[in-house]
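comment on this one:
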Amino acid sequence: PDDQKLKTESFHLEKKNGEEIARDAPVKNFVENGDDLYLKAGASKTMAELGITLPEQEETEKPTPKRKPLPPTESELETAARAKDKEKSKEDKSKPMCKRFGCQKRYDPATNGPESCRHHVKPPVFHETRKFWACCPDQIAWDWDSFQAIPGCAVAAHSDTREGRSFLGGSDVRAEMEKSGPQRIDQPKDQKSGLDKISKLRKDLVSAGISGSVFDAARDKVKEKTVSEAPETPSDKIWDHVFEGIVRHISSSLEQL
């Protein structure tokens, strides 16, 4: 039936590599024997629309089309990147790897100076959704990329000696604080810190359907406001104020319903 016939003006030809064949291009100049051609949706374009020009040549010579080179595909870029990383890995395997916290880079012992390595002096802490370095507890990250972006707090030469445990949990940090810090006899043992309260609140709200990223953005805004309005607040009390600020905002929103 006529209604099932293909409308030629609605299609064009492409080669296997994605190169489109212009409707007014000489076939002998663009299609070789054995080329696979594919019928694609979309009206066929002219050579001018595709930016193709044919140089003036002698009739005895085969015209060579001039066309802008196609940009590399995503798979080609990925393959090239993998090859580069593989080659770099082969070169680096002969070098020792620094085992300081937050470094893990391979280095040349001959050029390993006293300021070659920026690192952390204590292991990372992974507690619920929080990620931070035990030596820098004020710099909290909630995703892996942000955690890796936290700069080291010390500088020294690279070292291939492992420095104790690879990571700590929240209980390890609390145990260290209880062992090294002053003890209050009037403070309940189960009293939670501001960070613990924020983590639990986030977990409960996410389970109720609130987006985690929305909560994180709001938490960061409250923290910025807290620090700017009360810069003298002790670092160990900042998160308590942030938790109180979040609770006030939630209460205010509920009252306006």
Remarks:
- The longest strand covers residues 136-141.
- The CA atoms of residues 131 and 143 lie 7 Å apart.
